[in-house]
Write a structure and sequence with these properties.
Main location: membrane
Protein name: L-lactate permease
Membrane topology: Multi-pass membrane protein
Function: Uptake of L-lactate across the membrane. Can also transport D-lactate and glycolate.
Helix content: over 70%
Pfam families: Lactate_perm
Shape: elongated
Number of strands: 0
Number of helices: 3
Number of domains: 1
Order of helices and strands: HHH
């Protein structure tokens, strides 16, 4: 169940609706691709940590 929540959080990190909302709040236009590229790096690190902890937990 915790791994499912972690996966949902990772999906929420790169959700285009959230990226557009943040871009609107920060008054940044046409930078959505750049924001997603920067966010996907941290999302992959988060996925790696979640996968390692789940593998340790299973074995």
């Amino acid at each position: 169940m915790a791994l499912r929540s972690a996966g949902a959080a990772m999906g929420n990190m790169i959700c285009i609706n959230n990226i557009i909302a943040i871009s609107t709040i920060l008054d940044v236009s046409n930078k959505e691709g750049f924001i997603i590229k920067r966010t996907i790096i941290s999302m992959l690190a988060y996925a790696l940590v979640a996968a390692l902890f789940s593998m340790i937990r299973l074995y």
